[in-house]
Amino acid sequence: MQHEEESTLFGLMAEFETPDDLLAAAKATFAAGYRKIDGYSPLPVHGLGDAIGFPRTKLPWLVFCFGILGGICGYGLCYWVSVIDYPMNIAGKPLHSGPMFIPVTFELTILFAALSAAFGMFIANGLPQPYHPVFNVESFARASQDRFFLSIEADDPQFDLDKTRNFLNGLNPHEVAEVEN
Asked: Which of 22, 85, 78 lies closest to 48 in space, CA to CA?
């Protein structure tokens, strides 16, 4: 019967009152060998991502590459329109004039980079995500107001319900709650 309970269990979540408590708990949890952990906070907590072992994102490289692509597209568009598709010789000026192409090139660089950042962020964060098991914990409603939470998932290799609960209680949380699927 207990095996059935564990199969519906998403993990355990500890509630803390200050960001410093959350950061200290996250560092201790990672140092204890837990790897499937996550922190929830109503405000950015500097160092929390590193404390829980959050991997570095490749999003800056994606944004850079799409920015370069946007610049190439902008310059190529101006060149194609002015030199190849519809050349107009006005007052003997050259058809290919680099300074004239700068505004369009700059704007398309920014457009491509911004769109790749926005869509890349949504994809990398798995958004939109209208449901997550942590929403089942009643006190989690305060995560967007004034409380800080640390969760350890049940599928962590080191997770044992009793040992993990005792470990989290040793971090002096306000409360430790079970998170059901």
From this structure: 22
